[in-house]
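User: Please predict the structure of the protein below. I'd like the answer in structure-token form so I can feed it into my own downstream comparison script.

Assistant: Understood. Taking the following sequence of 150 residues as input:
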Amino acid sequence: MVVEQAKGADSGLQAKVHQAILSFDPLRMFSHAMSVQVNDGRVQLLGTVRTPMMKRMAEELARKVPGIQGVQNNLLTDTELQLQVAQRLAADPRTRLLTDEVTVRGFLGTIYLQGSVDSAARREIAAKVAGEVPGVRQVINELSVRENTP
């Protein structure tokens, strides 16, 4: 888990939130994809988690820390991120026609593009569009280029 350096009382709260989140085994396993920021007793959760349950649990654990004034849960689930990438690919005129040919999978902020496209340029554009979606940490471009048949 990435822990932004807080100052004063926020530093202690931040450490307590961090420990609370790490106390839940499923979150501890994937904590490298999350970050916690605390400012004036308010927690901001950022990054990606696997499931909606993990997203809710991170927020609940942060809220239970004494002294926390509020929690802004900006965590994304893998499914939410996949959907955002797929929507962006469908909306972009350069990749709009790829929606039936490209599969988007996500794992903790890493997006995997799979399928086939008609050109190397489209392959690169798809990766660029996917990488511009907030929350995407990395794009693994597994798209193949179809050979043109006469």
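That's the full token string. Residues 9-22 form the longest helix (14 residues).
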